[in-house]
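Worked Example 4.2. Consider the chain below.
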Amino acid sequence: MLRHRLSDQQWELVQDFFPPPARTGRPRRDRREILDGILWILRTGAPWRDLPMELGPWATVWDLFDTWNNDGTLGAILSRLRAAGIDAGLVDRELWCVDGTVVRAARCAGGGGKDDDPEEPPDHALGRSRGGFSTKIHLLCDGHGHPLDFHLTPGQAHETTGLVPLLEGAEERVVDGDGESIAWPVALAGDKGYRADWIDEYLLELGVTPVIPSKENEDRAARAVEFDREAYRRRSIVECLIGWLKECRRIFSRFEKTAKNFGGMIKMAFIQRYLRLCSE
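Applying the procedure from the previous section yields the following structure tokens:
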């Protein structure tokens, strides 16, 4: 039996996103089977053409992944599951954490060409860092390690360049069951890569206390905020999230040509994590 399939309880949480098949016409593939196929690709990192036939024709699974990612179905599923976690009080409101991680891109990820989609960046979030041809994932999670949102940039981009888009995206997408944006946390923790006066000022304007250590060559007493060492010790939870995320082999290495489809794989990983959380 293949691994990574949805349980009956997990399927019940999302099945209403997929309308029942029509009574007439050509029978369509079972949508639960298609989701199982996408999750299998996500977890194994295998090429689409290597998808086991019992999970459906690879071209059908790929086409529906692309369709659901573009029409907002995956985003809607993630939004519902994340909101369910928020309403259940599972999301930490005291501390959120932020970090960036570089993902090596395979040769086949290049050549995306021009794209008329306004949501697709011209560079497809691909660049060259010390690690080579790569993408950087900027991650936001709560103090328990629950993923909240992400933002993609080329691999050579500094963490600070992704912070504002990441938080602006979170303000729009991290909502409760009523569709209302939740309040910012008391504090936001990040490593020294996020240490800049403008970041301190930006977070303080949002009503968020920055938990970011000072650099060795600066006057710590001159900062507007006092460093909370105890809260900073909890920042390691975002490193654990990154480690878990890269156990999804389709994220450990990037094979998708477009940033949008690579982001779709990250959404699927988030969905899988929230499905496990909401079905416990």
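The two ends are 22 Å apart (CA to CA). Residues 259-278 form the longest helix (20 residues). Compare this with Example 4.1 before moving on.
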